[in-house]
Structures are given as C-alpha cells and as structure tokens.
C-alpha cells in the first residue's frame, strides 16, 4: 500500500503538503494540488486515517450530534463537519438530540455503538462523565459548549464578549432598559451570554433588572408572550439583546412591530434582507465544525499526540439597521 511519503516523492512535494491537499487546505496552489491529486490516483493512495479504520475494524464514519439540525447555527456546524469528512473519504452520521437532556445519553450511546471514528457533539445535558469510557477509543469533540465532568476537546465561541459587545452597543444608542431574550435549548451558552449582558450593564452603571430577562422566547408563541410581558412593565425596555439566531427569528416580528431596537447573537439566512436588517454578533459555526472534525480525525489517527484541549473562537459585531444605526 502506498504511503503519504510515496505520494510526496512522486508529486515532488513534502509529506506535509500532501496532508494539506488531503485536508482541502485552501492555501495550496492549484497546480500543486493537481500534481498531488494525480499522484494519489496513480498510486491508489489510501490515506492513513482510512487505513487505520481497516486495521482496527472500525467504521469509516464520524458522528455529529446537535440539538436541532434545522437551527441555522447547528446546520452550519453539520455542513462543515461533512465537508471535512467528505474530503477524507469519510461519511457522517447526523442525529438531533432535541432539547431534553434525558434523551441525550440513549441517543449518543446508539451512535457510539456503531464504532465511530469520532464524534462531534453539541450537548444539552449537564453531566458528561458517563462518556469517559467511550473517549478511551473514540475521539469526542465538543462544540458550542464545553464538557462537564469530562476531559475532552472543546471548540466554543467567545459568548461572553459577544453579548457584551451587543449590549454595550445598544447602551451607546441611549438605551438604559435592555431586555435579554433566550430559550431553553442553549443553556450553557445562554448563561455565558447572560454574564456578558450583565457585565455590560454594570460597566455602564446600569442596574440589573431580572424582570428584563426572558427565557421562554424559543418559539413564536413564547417570544410573543415574553415581549407582551415586557411591554406591560411600567418601565418597559426600549431595546433587546437576543441570545441566539432561533430566538431572533421567533421574536423578529414582535420586536419590529413594537419599534424595539435589537441585536441578535448569530447571523442567519436573509438577516441582511429583512426590514429592518438585523444587527448581529457574527459567529462562525462553520469554523467550529471544521476545527472539531479535523481534531477528531487527528486524534483517531494519532491517539497519543498532544493537543490544546480548549479553543475559543472570537466573534464580532455586524452593524445593520435593527439596532438603530442609519
């Protein structure tokens, strides 16, 4: 069986360049990519990661488990994992956990029993210690939220700083009553984002009013009820921070009708085409998916290698019209 070095020698490049081509690195020159691809075809090269699955009797699949594959954020994570795996000749098995923590364990156990090469997981439960035996032979990569009571890699975005930026921006527009809208499907991220919201209020010398915190805005009806409750307050909020894209989409019409300025955490399709266009904390869920899938394959191929276990990806504020900017 041809090795990566055989491909490198035939293509006149280094083994590292072959690896970059195999992983679809966009920085490889087209002519170099074509030489390496031709060498792979000529030598019938089977990448080591696949060769190892044959030797170990494992499947050639990576699992992806997220709360909701329809959610724009998690859909982007799934697509990114699929792209990384497809480039390596590996299939993906995708499942939705839902928002019930009790459902997470049986769903994941069924997936892990298929002898996966790795698992990319966005959990909803608050205890992951039971996964420890599985991590001994299956790389498990956490995205969007870190593991609890388990040593495993995590790839998360800077939730706290993002919500701080959004809340501070609304305060800079003169709003002193800013609501916090959330749902029950992203509890760890919601807590981090609530911490950033609270910090921004404190830095501006504004008190935290817990009546302005709404945790039931994850549906059209829920968002409508929460916003009606907020509007009935004698000192109703004039602005709102929406803690994820799903909440923003459910609350959009009610926020627009009320003339409430708002910023959402997470972009979503058509957000820039709506009236008003939605100002957002711009996430990069695809990057999280790429990083997690790449790490899963790396750990599968080199189990004893050492990696940085925690990766925090920065976020930024994309200003459109919903916040009140012209």
From TrEMBL:
SUPFAM superfamilies in the record: lambda repressor-like DNA-binding domains, Periplasmic binding protein-like I
Matches recorded under Gene3D superfamilies: 3.40.50.2300, lambda repressor-like DNA-binding domains
Pfam family, one: LacI
Keyword entries, A-Z: DNA-binding, Transcription, Transcription regulation
Entry superkingdom: Bacteria
Domain HTH lacI-type: 2-56
Matching InterPro entries: HTH_LacI, LacI/GalR-like_sensor, Lambda_DNA-bd_dom_sf, Peripla_BP_I
Protein name, UniProt field: LacI family transcriptional regulator
Species this protein is from: Herbiconiux gentiana
């Amino acid at each position: 069986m041809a090795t990566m070095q055989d491909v490198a020698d035939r293509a006149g490049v280094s083994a590292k360049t072959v690896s970059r081509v195999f992983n679809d690195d966009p920085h490889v020159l087209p002519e170099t990519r074509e030489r390496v691809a031709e060498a792979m075809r000529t030598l019938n090269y089977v990448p080591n990661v696949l060769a190892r699955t044959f030797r170990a009797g494992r499947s050639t699949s990576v699992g992806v488990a997220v709360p909701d594959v329809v959610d724009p954020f998690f859909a982007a994570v799934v697509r990114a994992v699929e792209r990384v795996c497809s480039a390596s000749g590996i299939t993906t098995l995708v499942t939705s956990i839902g928002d019930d923590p009790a459902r997470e364990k049986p769903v994941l156990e069924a997936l892990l029993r298929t002898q996966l090469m790795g698992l990319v997981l966005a959990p909803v439960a608050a205890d992951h210690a039971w996964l420890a035996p599985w991590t001994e032979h299956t790389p498990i990569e956490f995205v969007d939220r870190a593991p609890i009571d388990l040593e495993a890699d995590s790839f998360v975005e800077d939730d706290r700083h993002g919500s701080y930026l959004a809340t501070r921006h609304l305060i800079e527009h003169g709003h002193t009553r800013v609501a916090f809208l959330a749902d029950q499907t992203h509890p760890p991220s919601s807590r981090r984002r609530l911490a950033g919201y609270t910090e921004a209020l404190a830095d501006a010398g504004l008190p935290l009013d817990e009546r302005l915190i709404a945790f039931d805005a994850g549906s059209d009806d829920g968002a409508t009820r929460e916003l009606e409750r907020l509007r009935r307050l004698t000192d109703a909020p004039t602005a709102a921070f929406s803690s994820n894209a799903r909440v923003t989409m459910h609350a959009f019409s009610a926020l627009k009708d009320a003339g409430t300025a708002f910023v959402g955490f997470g972009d979503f399709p058509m957000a820039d085409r709506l009236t008003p266009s939605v100002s957002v904390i711009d996430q990069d869920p695809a990057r999280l998916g790429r990083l997690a899938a790449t790490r899963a394959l790396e750990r599968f191929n080199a189990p004893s290698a050492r990696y940085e276990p925690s990766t925090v990806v920065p976020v930024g504020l994309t200003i459109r019209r919903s916040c009140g900017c012209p």
